[in-house]
């Protein structure tokens, strides 16, 4: 995949691919970082199998999807974290940042290609940056040793936390909050550690991440609180 930002030609090609609602629906269904078979993506897009195959072929050729073959089965996923970042940015509403009615949980916390987004994600990023626990480097975002120590003290697995300072993060623009959350390998690993610790859990359907009561208490130890 080309590096961010895309060139004007690449942006035009991406726009053409996303102009078809069925293809956009397929991409959004994969925005949580999962890999899904063609039949499941066809249902998400509301199209038949032949139409879905044609759309998937175009998305593969356009570099937005990758495919994993396991025996007779093919599983499709986003081609990378950069694609998820483009989707988040392109999803920014033009008139209002409020998500559709009933999507309160999605706005509060959700997965964006396996990293934490929404109000909780941007609050965490802002607090880590404000305390100097997260620093900006020429290669992206980096977790400082003091940040790793704070996360471990708040209750994350020390072994998981020890791996975080060596990972590169990416500042990802949040589509509902219009502020930054932590993406890239650092964001994925940090969110994974929070899920493992029980601070968060996946909703039964969709991309929402649900913070536990104990998780909210642990986030508060880091100075992170949800609005309202």
Termini distance?
Answer: 39 Å
The succession of helices and strands, N to C, reads HHEHHEEHHEEHEEHHEEHEEH
Q: How many individual β-strands?
A: 11
Number of helix segments?
A: 11
* Class derived from helix and strand content: alpha+beta
Strand order of the largest sheet: 1-3-2
**Average pLDDT, all residues:** 85
Low-confidence stretches: 92-102
What is the radius of gyration computed over CA atoms, rounded to a whole number of angstroms? 18 Å
Oligomeric state of the chains in view: single chain
Work out the helicity level: 40-55%
The backbone outline, from C-alpha atoms, is globular
Throw out a few tags for this protein.
228 residues; 47% helix; alpha+beta; two-stranded antiparallel ribbon; three-stranded antiparallel β-sheet; 18% strand; globular; 11 strands
Structure overview:
The protein is about 45% helix and about 20% strand. By secondary structure, it is of the alpha+beta class. The strands form five sheets. A three-stranded antiparallel β-sheet has the order 1-3-2. A two-stranded antiparallel ribbon has the order 4-5. A two-stranded antiparallel sheet has the order 6-7. Strand 6 (about 135) and strand 7 (about 140-145) form a beta hairpin. Helix 2 packs across helix 3 (about 40-45) and helix 3 (about 40-45) crosses helix 4. The longest helix is centred in the first third of the chain and has 13 residues, at about 50-60. The relative contact order is 0.12.
């Amino acid at each position: 995949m080309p590096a961010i930002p895309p060139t004007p030609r690449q942006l035009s090609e991406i726009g053409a691919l996303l102009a078809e609602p069925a293809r956009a629906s397929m991409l959004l269904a994969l925005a949580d970082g999962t890999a899904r078979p063609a039949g499941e993506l066809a249902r998400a897009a509301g199209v038949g199998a032949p139409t879905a195959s044609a759309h998937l072929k175009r998305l593969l050729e356009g570099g937005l999807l990758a495919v994993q073959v396991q025996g007779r089965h093919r599983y499709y996923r986003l081609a990378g974290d950069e694609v998820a970042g483009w989707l988040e940015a392109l999803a920014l509403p033009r008139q209002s940042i409020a998500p559709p009615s009933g999507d309160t949980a999605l706005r509060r916390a959700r997965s964006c290609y396996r990293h934490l987004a929404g109000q909780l994600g941007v609050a965490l990023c802002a607090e880590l940056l404000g305390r100097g626990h997260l620093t900006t480097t020429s290669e992206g975002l980096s977790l400082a040793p003091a940040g790793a120590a704070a996360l471990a003290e708040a209750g994350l697995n020390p072994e998981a936390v020890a791996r975080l300072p060596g990972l590169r993060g990416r500042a990802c623009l949040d589509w509902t909050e219009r502020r930054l959350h932590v993406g890239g390998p650092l964001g994925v690993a940090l969110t994974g550690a929070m899920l493992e610790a029980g601070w968060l859990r996946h909703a039964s359907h969709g991309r929402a991440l649900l913070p536990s009561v104990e998780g909210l208490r642990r986030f508060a130890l880091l100075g992170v609180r949800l609005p309202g």
